[in-house]
Structures are given as C-alpha cells and as structure tokens.
Fold these 2 entries.
Entry 1:
Amino acid sequence: MTVSREDIAAFVDGELAGEREAEVAAAIAADPDLQRQVEAHRALKAQLSGHFAPISEEPVPDALAALLAPKQAEVVDFAAARERRETRRSIPRWGWIAGPALAASLALAVFLPRGGSADGYADAQLARVLDSQLVVEQGPDAETRILLSFRDGEGDFCRAFSSVEGSGIACRDAQGWKFAAQGEGSDGAKTDYRMAGAGDGEILARAQQMADGPALDAQAEAEARDGGWR
Amino acid sequence: MLPRLRRFAVGLCGNPADGDDLCQMSIERALANRDKWQAGTRLDSWMYRIMRNLWIDEGRATTRRRETFVAEEAGFSVGGEGAQEPAVELSMVDRAMQQLPEEQREAVLLVMVEGYAYKEAAEIVGCPVGTLNSRLVRGRDALLEMLGEKA
C-alpha cells in the first residue's frame, strides 16, 4: 500500500477513520521513514502551537474588549475569569485557554480532567489506557487518545493523552502514572465539530518542553510498554 | 473566544498591530451583522469566517506592506549573536508563515493552531475538504522545509 503525504498529515491530525487509519498506522509501524515523517509533522504542530499559544494567553487589549463591553453582558464573565486567573497562578497557564465549547459566552474557564485521584495519580481506568494503548494502534473512537510518548529530563516515561473529559501528561514513577500537566478536555476526534487541537496543542507544546529528545516512535513505544514503562 | 480570534488574526497578518486591527474590524462587522448569525450554529466558526473574509478583502494591501518590513527586521536579528536564539527561532516561525501563500497559511492556522477538523476549516474558508487538505499538505511541507525537520 502506498501512503501519500496527505495520508501522513491526515493521520497526524486524527482525520483518518476506520480501515484507512488502520492501514496507514500499519504502514507507518513498518516503515521507519514514515515514522520519521510522522514525528516531523508532530514536532511542527507542537512548534506552531507553542509559537501562537502566548498570543491567546495575553490579556485582550482594552480597545477590543471595549467593543463588546456595552453590548454583551457576557464580557463580565470574561473579566471575572481573567481576575481569577491572576489570583490562581498556581494553575498552569495553559489550563486557561478559552474553551470552544464556551465560545458563545466569551467566557474563559478551566477544566480539570476526571480520571484523577486525589493524590495526583491517574485512576485505574486511565492508568489502564496509559499502560496498554499505543499511538499507532488506537482507533478514532478510542475514548482516550494517546497523543505521544516521550522521556522527560529524569528519564521517566511520560505520555500525553486527550479525552472528552480531560487531557494532560502523566509520567510513570514507582507508584503509578503521576500527572505532570492537565488541560481541558477535547470533544473527541471523530465528530464534525472536533476542537481537539485547541487543547491538545497546549499539551503538546508542554510535552515538547518536558521531553528530553524527540517523542518515542512506534517501535520504541511498543518496547517501553512491554517493559512496563520503567 | 476573543483571545483565540486574536491569535488567528495575528497569525494571518503576521504581526500583532495588524492582527488587532483585523480583530477590531471583525468584531465591528460581526456586531453590525448580528442578526445574520443563526442561533444554534457555531459562533466561533462564524467569527473566523468573517475575519478571514475581511482579511482577504481588505487586509491584503496592508499585509503586503508589512511583509517587506517584517522580513527585513527579522533579517537583522538572524545576523545577531547566538544569545538571541529563542527570539530568532520565534521570528523564524513568523517569517516562514508569511512566506506561505495566503490560502495555505489560513489552512495551516485553522487546523494546526486553532485545531479545527478539516471539514470545519473547509467550511470557514468556503472550499471543498479535498482542496483544504491539499493546501494544508503543501503548507506543511513548505514549513517543514523552511523550519527544518526537528524530529
């Protein structure tokens, strides 16, 4: 089977579905050159997200906010959210990207994913996914998608994931999968109104900062899984 | 939504000043056409479409002028010392984006930065999905070449 550049790009964007996705995933798994292309696309995506993310985190210039102020009461929400952001700096900044689901209200909000237990570790269900699911094998309808896997500066394996309920990065330590970063949930990749990239971009940009070297390719990821991520 | 709209505007225009101007025009036009927005459809897609059309209709002359200026300025910093590396890399992304044809730039921004699905992005731009897909691939390949494959 031939895999076109369109296929690679669509695969990285989560735009392929069903049989075609499986075919392309299999071809990628079998071909280091294609894996390299996939990684290059992911890196580019993370680079672009990282580059443009700061703009959406800046306070909106007063001149722009003022245009809306007299006419739409929702702006109050926005101002309140910004104020909360100022007082809660301990929450990672990228958790505050305006959620598309709230687009109509112009409000900013933060979503912390379910799937976490109180001590900062992934719960059993999420841990199972983190333990077993490989990027190249997951289907478009997977509830939780693994975005990529990498080693952090301390050599621990970390995995960036995304689901409707929440996205984030978890790193494997002796106790389990400890959250290193959490972001908002996405709407899932297979609906027409997917907005996954908005939140995922932040997570990927964060992963790029944390990673010590490039993300694991399909083979390295499979080996890491077989080795229990330790 | 406003921060995201600004991000898209700055990405299209290549600099914050023009981006904010574009953002302002878009909001004004949206407010003026409020009655044309159909409740139940996505407000953000509608706003992106307004912004994108304005950019195509009115922004071109301005963007062209600025392009020359930005490229020149970035040229100076590229010649600077290694200590400026992060800044240089950032302006590399801006510069690379500005090198892309407009149709590729908007496709790249909508999908890779704003996170729209192909179908949604195609609706905003007003072209078939296949067309959007091929613009996106050409834009990506050009960016990978300009920015170097970092993986």
Entry 2:
Amino acid sequence: MKRRNIIQALIIAALAVFGAGSGAYAADTIKVGILHSLSGTMAISETALKETALMTIADINAKGGVMGKMLEPVVVDPASNWPLFAEKARQLLTQDKVAVVFGCWTSVSRKSVLPVFSELNGLLFYPVQYEGEELEKNVFYTGAAPNQQAIPAVEYLMSKDGGGAKRFFLLGTDYVYPRTTNKILRAFLKSKGVAEKDIEEMYTPFGHSDYQTIVANIKKFAAGGKTAVISTINGDSNVPFYKELGNAGLKATDVPVVAFSVGEEELRGVDTKPLLGHLAAWNYFMTLKNGENDKFIKMYKDWAKKSKLPNADKAVTNDPMEATYIGIHMWKQAVEKAKSTDVNKVIAAMGGQSFKAPSGMTVKMDEKNHHLHKPVFIGEVRADGQFNVVWKTPGPIKAAPWSPYIEGNDKKKDEPDVK
Amino acid sequence: MIRHVFILFWLAVAVSPVHAALNAAVVQQLAAPDTDQKISAIQQLALSAEPEAMRLLQALADDSLLLAGDKLVRIDGQRAFDAATSVEISPVPVNTESLVVNNRARGELATALAVLKLFGPNRDERLAAAKALEDNVDPIFIPVLERALAQEQDAEVKKMVAQAHALMALKSPDPAQRLAAVKTLGESGNPNLKIQFVALTSPANEADEQVRMAAQISLRALETRLAWGENISRIFSGLSLGSVLLLAALGLAITYGVMGIINMAHGELLMVGAYATYSVQNVFRNHFPDALDWYVLAAIPVAFFSAALVGVIMERTVIRWLYGRPLETLLATWGLSLILIQAARVIFGPQNMEVANPSWMSGGVELISNVVLPWNRLIIIGFALFVLGLMWVLLNRTRLGLFVRAVTQNRAMAGCVGVPTGRIDTLAFALGAGIAGLGGVALSQIANVGPDMGQGYIVDSFMVVVLGGVGQLAGAVWAALGLGVVTKFIEGWAGAVIAKIVVLVFIIIIIQKRPQGLFALKGRSVD
Amino acid sequence: MIKKRTPFVIRFLLATSRRGWIALGLFALVAWVLMPAAHLILPDGHPLHVSDYVITLGGKVMCYAIVAVAMDLIWGFAGILSLGHGLFFALGGYVFGMYLMRSIGLDGVYHSALPDFMVFLDWKDLPWYWHGTEHFLYIVLLVLLVPALVAFIFGYFAFRSRIKGVYFSIITQALTYAAMLLFFRNETGFGGNNGFTDFKRILGYPITAPEMRVTLFVLSALMLMFTLVLGRYLVTSKFGRVLAAIRDAESRVMFIGYNPLWYKLTIWTLSAMLCAVAGALYVPQVGIINPSEMSPANSIEIAIWAAVGGRGTLIGPVLGAFVVNLSKSWFTVAFPEYWLFFLGLLFVLVTLFLPKGVVGLWQRIRQRGVP
C-alpha cells in the first residue's frame, strides 16, 4: 500500500520539478528584474527601493519607453535569504530572460548573486553604499564607495565646524561593511595623526537591542577628550541605540554621532527630538533644494498615493532610492546609445553616461570603474526627521572602490578584470 | 584678537544702564553663513544680558528665528516680530527659511542661554543652567560667572557655578587660584574632569608641587567614585535588561508555561501590543494633542485587549483543536506568526513606526555624576513588577485563576465538577496574549516597532520560561533577572556577541543539570 | 534466527520492498537520465529543455529532502524533536565550503593563497583548523566527522540527563542560535556574515560547467535514495523497533532492561551526519554558505517539511520538502507581496486538517475509496 504511494508521489514530485521550468514570454517589451527583499529582516529598507524602481519604470514607459519598447518589471521576493537571492537571480536571468536587474541591499546578498551574474553574463545595478573592495564587470555600483561617504564625514568631524573631534568611537554591527569601513577609517585616522589609544572599535550582533553597556562605554571614552561616534550600526538596531543615547543624556553637541546607514526612511521609525544634531553622510538628502529633487520627491509622493502605500502621506525619499532612480535612467541612456539591450554593448555604453540627479549635480558614470562620480553631503538631524545640510563637496567626486588606505590596493587596477 | 576687542566693547555695553533695542548688526550676524561669525554674535548677545537677547537666542534654539528675504524674523506662536527691534510685523511673512545652526553653534548657543539663565528668578532653572555650564564654557564668560557667583543666594546653585568657574580658573596663572580650583573640582565627581586632573599631576603641565598633590587626591577620589558608578550602572542595566526579558516572556509563561502551547506566534503578540501603542499615540496626536504625554497610559488597556482579541481568534480558530499535541501547536503557531507578520507589513507598511517616549519617560535621573538612570528603563522595571503582580493576583486570587489552574492540572476532573473547560482555555490564552500585549507596550518605548520585532524576542522568551521551569511564575522572574544581570556583566568585559553566546551555552549546561528548569515542580508523575 | 545469518548487505537491501525499489528505480531514471539528458543534450529553445535553473533548484530541494528525512528519523521514529538541525546542515556546508574556498587558489580578489576574507582581516597564516582543508578526501571525512562529533557530545549529555520533549527542542534551538552568533563573528575564521562564496572549482573542474551541475544533481539524487533505503532498513530493523518503543513509552523500555541513551544517541548522530552530507552537497549548488543557515527559523522550517509531508513515514518528509520549497519558489514570484499568507496558511491548515501530512491525506482518500 505504501509503496504505490511512493511511486505516485515520485511522479508528482518529478512533474512539479518540470512544471516549475516553464516560463511565460511576452513579446515586444523589455523585461527588467527587480530583486529586493519584500519580506524578512531587510524588507524594512528594500521595499522602498522596489517602489522607486517601479515608479521610475512607469515614468519611463509613460514617456515612450526605451527604444519604442515598454519596460516590463518582473518583481521577485528573495525574502532576505541569501541563497534565495542567488536562486532568484538565476531565475530572472534564465527563466524570465530579463535585460537587466536592479537589486540587492546587503553586501552578502550582492556577494551571493555575483557568481550567477558573471556566469550568465547578466547585468546588475546595485544602489546602496558599500565597503568597496570589489569591481565586477557585470555590476554597476550607483551607491557610494567609502571615499564618497565615510572619509568626508570623518574629515568634517575633525574640522572646526564639525566640533574638532580628537577621539573616535567606531561602533558597528558585526559584518563586512562596518568592518571594512572601520578598517579604512582607522588607517585614515592614523594618517591624520590620531593615536591608537584615541580610537575604539566595537561591534554588536545583528538585531542587538540593548545598548546600555555600549552607551556607558561611549560616555566613559568621551571623558578622555572631544569624541565623535562613527556608527555603522545596521538598520534595526539604530532605534534602540538612539533611544538609549537620548535617555542617557549624550547630546550631539557633546558627542556627535555620524551614521552611514541612517537616512530619512530609517528616521521615520524614530522619535527624532532627542537626536537633534546627530549627523549622517550621504550623496543625497531629501531636503536638498533644486528642481530635479522637487520633481523626484513629487513623483514619489504621487506614486505612493496612487499605489496606496501605507503611510503614503508621510512618504520620504532617501539616498539609495535616488541611486536606484539614477541607475535605471542611466541604463536607459546606455541602451539607447548602444541601440541594444545586449549586456556587453550596454556595459560598453555605460561608461561616461551622465545624468542630472536629484542631488542637484550632474553625476557621471566613470569611464572605467563602474562607479558613479557623486557629491557628498553631511546633514544634521532636524526635529522633523529630515536633515539640515551643513557641509557638501564642491562637486562630484570619483569613487575609489579599492581604498588606498588598505594595504596592497595600490596595485589594483581601477577597472574590472577581463575574464 | 578682533573678537576680543569686540567682546570688551560689548562688555562695556552690557554694564551700561541703557537697555535699548539690540544691535541690529549683531542680530543680523546670526544669519551669517560662517559659523565663527554666528558664534561671535551669539556670545555678544549673551554678554549683553538683555532679556530681549535671551528671547532671541531662545528663538534661535527653538528654530523659530527665521529668515524672510534678508530680514530676520522671530516667530512667536502666530505672530511675527522683527528680530532686532521686536516690532511686530504683520502680516506674518511667508516664504521663510530657517537658519542653519550646526552642532558647534548649537553648543555655544546652549552655553550662552545657560549663562543668561543664571540670572533668572527660578532657582531650579538656575541650577539646571549652572549644571549645563559644568563641562564647556568659553573663558569670555568668566566675568559673568563671577557676577553670578557674587549674586547667587542658593547654596547648591552657588556650588555648581563655583565649579564651572573653577574649571576655567584651572588655567589661571596664579597657583593659589589653581589650587583652590582643583579642590573645588575634587568634590564634583564629573567624569570629564579626569583628563584635567591627569594632566595636572604631571610636572610637565603643572609647576606647583601643592597643586599637583591636590590634583592627585582629587583624581583618586574621582576614580573611586567612577568605579562605584560603573558597578551600579552595570547592575542597573542588568536589572533593566532582565525586566525587559521578563515582560517579553510573561505572556509566554501562561500560554506555554501553564497551558503547554508552544506558541511561536508569541513574538507577534508583542508586536500587536506595540502597534496598538503606536495607534493610540496617533489617535492622541490627532485628537487630543494636549494630553499626548499620557498616551502610554491609555495604550496599556488598548494593547492588552487588542492582543487578547488576537489571542481569542487564534485560540478559537486554530489552537483549540490541538490541545495535548504540543509539538503540533509549534507548527500551527509558526504559520500564524508568518500570517501576522505579513498582515502588519500590509497594514502598516514594512518600515519601523515611530513611537515617541512621553516627556515623563524621556531623559534620566542622575544618581551620581556618571550614573544616569533613564526614566523609561526605571518605569519599565516598575511596569514589569506591576504586570507580575497583576498576573499573580489573576492566577491565585480570582475564580478565573482557580479554574485555569484546575483545568491545566486535571482537565477531565475539572470538567466533571462543572468548570467550562473550553471557555477557560480561551480565556487563559487570551490572558496570556494580553500580557504579551502589555510587554509590547514596554518594548515600544525602548526598541523598534516593526513587523519583524517579535522575531527578535521569541528565542529569548522561550529561554527564560524554560530556564525558570515551565509552569513556574517565580522561576521565570529569577531566570529573567539572572539572565539580564549575567549578560550585562559578561558584556562588560567580553563584548555583546560573546556575552550572548556564553549565556546560551550557560542555559544549555543548566538544563543538563536540571532538566526541568531551575524551579521544577516537585512531583512523581510519570510521563 | 534465519535473518541473523543473512549477510548484512542482503538484509539492508531487502528492507525495502520490491515496489519500493521500483519507485526508486523510476526516480533514478528521472534524476539520473531524463533530467540530465534534457539539460545537456536538448538545445536551449526546445520545449522539453531543462534549464540550469531547474537543475540547481531541483538539486537544492533534494538536499532539503535529505534533511527532512534525517529529521523524520529522529522526530517521527524516535520522538525527539530537534529545533537545531540547521546547525548540522550548515556545519556540513561549512566544512565543504572550506575545501571550496581553498580550491579557489590564487583566483580570488586579492590573488592570495589565503581565502579573501582572511587577507582582508590581515591574517598572515591559516588558522590551525584550516590545515589540510585543500585535500578533498580529508574534507569528505571531516564533513562526516565534525557534525557527528558535535552531535555526539551534545546528545550524550542531553540524553544522559534525560532531557525530553520541549526542553530538548529548546536547548537544540539555543545550540544553533549560539553557533550562529559564533559564526557571525569575523574572528571565528569562517568569513563572518558573508560566509563563503564565489567558489570556482571542485577537484579542478569549474563549478559552473553544466556537467558539474548535473554531477552534483545526480549525487544529490543518489544521496537521497541512499537515505531512504537506509531509513527503511533502520526502521524495519530491531533497532528501529526499540526506537519506536522508546518514543512511545521510554520508562517501560528502561524497565525491560534497555538503555535508551545509546539508541537515541545512535539515531541522533546518524541523523546529524545525513544533514551534514546534504549540507555539503547543497553549498556548491547554491554557491553560498553563511551563518543565517543556522538561524532558529531555518531549523523550525525543517521540522515543518517533515510535518507537512507526514511524520513517521519515509516518503512523507521528501514530499513535504518538495511541496513547501517549490511552493515557496513559486509564491515568491507569483505573489511577492502575499506569499507569506499562503505559506502561513499552508502550515496552519496542514496541522489542523492533515495531522499525518500529505501522505496521511493520500491514505485517507484511498481508504474511503475515492479515486
């Protein structure tokens, strides 16, 4: 009795495997993959990027599409699960045959999909600031490299206006982005003459929610001289950290905290009154005043209302959203220049593309290194959860994915290896 | 140099009896793009000691000093005034831009305001102002401080002002003054002074032997105080973490501990409570802005009943069919937790929600100078005790509690003597869920409110209940507090990651020794 | 008595009935011949062509199926619910990942003999536990031994203290949680949060070649079949009966004179080893191993596969792993916003209405005579 079950079950299973293989094809559209987690721990940040991508695509379609063809977004949910990212990337490239993928947030998700993109010669646009130390032919990085975010921020903290910090408390979640950033910063600080005893590095596990001990440590450390905290704490842990900071009476005027992963979207979840004056460094802030940004903000707010997103009336834009927006537009320009969606042709056409970005400056894709030339802004948190821009670079600066502050990187080429 | 000339000039103005409108040029300088200029304007205004200057600086601090065109306007409620002359401007200008005040300027602004407030009528305000001057005050304010010192009547305020003054006197060329300053500061216990004392103990920085000795003594006294403070705050943070763990776990102590349901959706019940708090806060914000500070109190019953309602629905639809099959409740409730998480994501969006601490839960009480006990944590410890007491009374002193205990001990017998077992199950589960909702209220005050928040507490909650011994309220209390304090002490020397690992290994070992938890029920029942 | 004299191999093979063998044979035909042929021989546009996506997905799900069977061996047949089986799966994966990292050779980002993440942490030498990991056979041995050792030590103390039921489940959860935190640390020497990725080759053959992919697929199928045959042998043997007795009434078994410790420990360790092998096969197919495989949620999901398919049967967990994972793969594309509702509902409905899982449903339909 049981054995017959086995036979039948196996046939069903085999059919299921085959069944999953068939994909649908639509004619005369260009398929575009969107690979952002919509569930799991990263949904909190990545959902907004999916919306931005859909908005940008709808906008491009409304203006006639790309080379007369409509873009057809294919949204999948890798569920904050890293092996699933690789599986979904393969699915987008081989089953759905998308021309390009916009996606990923965490470094580990990018590392997980990289082999798939280089094996299948796909094209990925990665919109988030990251640790550098990477340059892949199949990836365009529209977020900041460390020299476009971390280093200017620290320079600002050391300047007179930034408070002239002498001691630095490097606090992060224990994963590769904080580790690399802190490694680069440590080398940078040393080159500026900061002594070893004036730098403290500390890491917490993912999802850490009790910052009492750490805030006490910061206080103790800060007693030794003008201190700034450089925070690479990842998303969810920021709320408990800032709440603890506020309640322990550490004000930004005494010990400023500069964060690299806290933007407008994250501050929506925090009561910002105690955070007044803490800093963030980005390549874009929602408060920037220029025509492009007004257009971008209005477009997103309308989109949020139209697609009935929860809390649409409070919708905000942030840096990775801007990077997504830039990425999609640049890809469109490159396709139009190459007159093809062929990956190699598009890659060749990407170098040197420029785009008038919502940051108010014209950003340019570097001819060689697959990173953008972007401006850097430093903002102080306002009571309404937005940022006052207190410092900015005079113009866009070139990305250095191989940080000169890491040993051995001087020998690295500033362009992807050709395989 | 020029700045100092300026200051002398303004000092002269400050002592002159003419209290006319503020100097328009200086006021206008507040809008200067250069921070140095801005700060110098702030200091000049402070030195003028005019009530008008204070109003203006306060407006700058409150972000109600705006730039309309190139004219500075002070907004007060619905009305607008010219910043320098205080003449009312009507209509209120539109198209205003707020002044950018960066951290450095804001620090100087706070100092300036504190200096001005030293002469205020209210004693508490003067004390707070003097305290704000404890760490950083620009030497240009020395004469002002001396004036305040001479004029101050209240002993405590006077002491604080003296300390602020002494901090500057440390740099005085006169050894006697320095000695007096070191002695004054030795009593303060301010941890930021340590670096100053250390510097003063070395002959390279301090020529005078006596001052060095005094600094040495002050340093030692300070260090003892700091060490004490550190231990106190470590125990406090342990207790606080313990109380949070306890609040997170108490609901589970009923649903799992008493009823035997492995409720993997427990974390999501916490989430329901936290979202309820958020919703109540929004209702208050929109409809009762005056009573906003008390929204947390209103949130307590709302969170309790909404989580209990979710609990009733869960129990009626799913869990009641699974009694006696504990491991299957695990699977079903896991499914329920996925549904609840996604429901929260669809209804409230995937982002974290902002839940603000009410003002009476913000900030902290300073026990000694390096120990600040945050109000929200103190109140949460109290709240944990309250919930614990509530649960104890409900379980041990009410008819419902009696029935719950009867049903869990012997369902058939309880049914025979007329206990409506089905309804009691529902009520008991609802109670557990409601208690979890109360935990959610507490968590919303210290951590994230988002769809995934429950996942972070589920493992910890189970550890607490299991370590304490299933079915033991007292066990859960000891386990939670013990875990909290142990975690914090290990974290002190080994870091957060190792502390967590060590504690987990510790739990595994304890369970080896006491397979039924620390406080196992004594009995001879065979499974 | 007669049985005792029959050689072990015969007894082992006879445990599975003829029909079982036919089923396995059919499965082998599909997994070893039809699928590889459809992937390798048929051209890309052919309607019956099996894409590399299907091959990797199929290989992945078969690895999950092995874990589900291993879970069922201890849960369904010995009554021990582990909420930490993801640990053994991940350990197997990590051990094999060490080999994969070493065989990258000088082709990494930093062109160093050390794995990239070590160069990055400024380590000059391999830590001691990485020594010898470039040898394939040594690694195969380690894949079996490391998880077995962890399982044995943990199991010995846990079963000796007679930790049972939910207590056991919770401490296994604590174990995998602690291990996850440990592996998240960069200093532990396993690449921290990023884990291992960017593998290049196995035994000198490039890992992305279609042949390699098919080989791994076929190996996974082979391992799944072996697990099923082994499982059948174990549960029909005397050993399996004692286990069932322990599951149903441990105290009575003790009173008769058996020591449950060794029975439990054997099946527990064996189950961990099966998971480890599955993990080792899984890593090269998905291309990444990182500590989130050890998260408690993943381990709970393993239990769910077994429950959905049907506890206490061998084919059930296989079905469960296929149903849950394929529906997850499909839902996440078809309804990216709502798939958690479906998945959650699936778990609830299965526990409520199909206490014996999909297999139980099948039996019920047959007994009622409904086709």
